[in-house]
């Protein structure tokens, strides 16, 4: 009996200490928001239909800038095109930090172009953009790699001979193969076992990352990281992908020709060699592996899912499909592949692509940012290190920028003369 009482008292004391430790402290003059509970934050005030539904309800009460406690940590939410642009563009330096995605943190640890911060992010981003742009200086361009894969995709679909076909696997394979071509310098056959394993690891990880368990892990990762869960499976999967990339890097080292870089890995290796005497360089093996992984991480799921939505909308709205087909026949015809130069001559097709991205709304909550210094924003004080979430969906459905945002309508991106028009609220993947 005494032992049971002691255990109960110890458990009660531990819980009280946890609650005290997790009690939200004052964080400057943060924007208003629902009152949080110790440790739990605002989780009990969330809508059962999901976090985003809850955020929209909080917006109605507190305005376009408000604070929500996700577990014990405060997060500032930004709503509407003007608010998001004011933060991420007008005060870009202050809001340029990367927030943490807990399930990815054990793998990336602040390395790689997607999850890096500060000068590291600037250096890797500048290099990655320049490398993509410079493909074509005597080398195969990114456009040519996409054209090659598009042709392979068409040939695979033709094999069905008009039978019913689930295109999911082909869309996933095509998008992953384009990134393989850019990073590794080669594409894979759709039946290649290594390639199929790579696909499986990626899409397993994406599925686990979007599960309810992973969402709960994001709220309470400081405690849950010590217990089994999807975060461990994601880490295991991505480590296997990293080993695959590492083997490819070693093969590239053995066959590297400095006068003829074949792909992203070759170009990075040459930069590593150029800066090997610089002890502070960001061009080292770890950033090469994790930047390569970042390109897959950022490009595969979003692109293949956009393709799926695109085909769905074209099936649902045949009058849109008919106009796209007519424009394709007028500009490209049936005897050559589409080229990037055709884009400026096809405003309706471009408008349809933009509307697919807007209406699909793949990232309603953008990647988390973090303020890099104490920041004054719209009359509020946001302390350095506070996470900030841009709610991109509120821009994509802003009635001030889109006449009928709840409807699929390519005219949202066309002017009265049928020419393509720029829309400041069109930020499907942030700014």
Concise overview:
53% of the residues lie in helices and 6% in strands. The protein has 431 residues and is of the alpha+beta class. The protein has 2 domains: 16-101 and 317-363 and 376-430, Cytochrome p450 (Orthogonal Bundle), CATH 1.10.630.10; 110-316, Orthogonal Bundle (Cytochrome p450).
The biggest sheet, with number of strands, parallel, antiparallel or mixed sense and barrel status, is: 5 strands, mixed
Q: Briefly, what CATH class of the largest domain? A: Mainly Alpha
Q: What structural class do the secondary elements suggest?
A: alpha+beta
List SSEs in N-to-C order.
HHEEHEHHHHHHHHHHHHEEEEH
- Strand tally, please? 7
Oligomer: single chain
User: Total domains, how many?
Assistant: 2
């Amino acid at each position: 009996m005494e032992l049971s009482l002691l255990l109960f008292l110890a458990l009660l004391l531990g819980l009280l200490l946890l609650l005290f430790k997790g009690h939200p402290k004052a964080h400057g003059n943060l924007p208003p928001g629902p009152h949080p509970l110790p440790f739990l934050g605002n989780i009990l005030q969330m809508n059962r239909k999901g976090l985003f539904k809850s955020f929209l309800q909080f917006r109605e009460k507190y305005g376009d800038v408000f604070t929500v406690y996700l577990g014990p940590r405060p997060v500032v939410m930004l709503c509407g095109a003007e608010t998001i642009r004011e933060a991420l563009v007008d005060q870009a330096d202050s809001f340029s930090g990367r927030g943490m995605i807990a399930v990815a943190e054990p793998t990336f640890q602040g390395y790689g172009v997607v999850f890096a911060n500060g000068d590291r992010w600037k250096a890797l981003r500048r290099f990655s953009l320049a490398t993509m742009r410079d493909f074509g200086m005597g080398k195969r361009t990114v456009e040519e790699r996409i054209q090659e894969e598009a042709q392979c995709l068409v040939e695979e679909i033709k094999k069905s001979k008009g039978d019913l076909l689930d295109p999911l696997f082909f869309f996933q394979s095509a998008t992953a193969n384009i990134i393989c071509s850019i990073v590794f310098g080669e594409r894979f056959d759709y039946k290649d076992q290594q390639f199929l394993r790579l696909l499986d690891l990626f899409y397993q990880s994406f599925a686990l990352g979007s599960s309810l368990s992973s969402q709960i892990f994001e709220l309470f990762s400081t405690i849950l990281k010590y217990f089994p869960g999807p975060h461990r499976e994601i880490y295991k999967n991505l480590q296997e992908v990293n080993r695959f990339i590492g083997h490819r890097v070693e093969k590239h080292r053995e066959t590297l020709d400095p006068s003829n870089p074949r792909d992203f890995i070759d170009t990075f290796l040459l930069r590593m060699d150029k800066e090997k005497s610089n002890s502070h360089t960001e061009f080292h093996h770890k950033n090469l592996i994790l930047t390569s992984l970042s390109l897959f991480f950022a490009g595969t799921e979003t692109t293949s899912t956009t393709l799926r939505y695109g085909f769905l909308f074209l099936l649902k709205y045949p009058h849109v499909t008919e106009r796209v087909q007519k424009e394709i026949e007028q500009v490209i015809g049936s005897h050559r592949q589409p080229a990037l130069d055709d884009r400026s001559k096809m405003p309706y097709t471009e408008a349809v692509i933009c509307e697919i991205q807007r209406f699909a709304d793949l990232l309603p909550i953008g990647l988390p940012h973090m303020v890099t210094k104490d920041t004054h924003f719209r009359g509020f004080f946001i302390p350095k290190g506070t996470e900030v979430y841009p709610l991109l969906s509120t821009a994509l459905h802003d009635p001030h920028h889109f006449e009928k945002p709840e409807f699929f309508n390519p005219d949202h991106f066309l002017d009265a003369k049928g020419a393509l028009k720029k829309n400041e609220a069109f930020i499907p993947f942030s700014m």
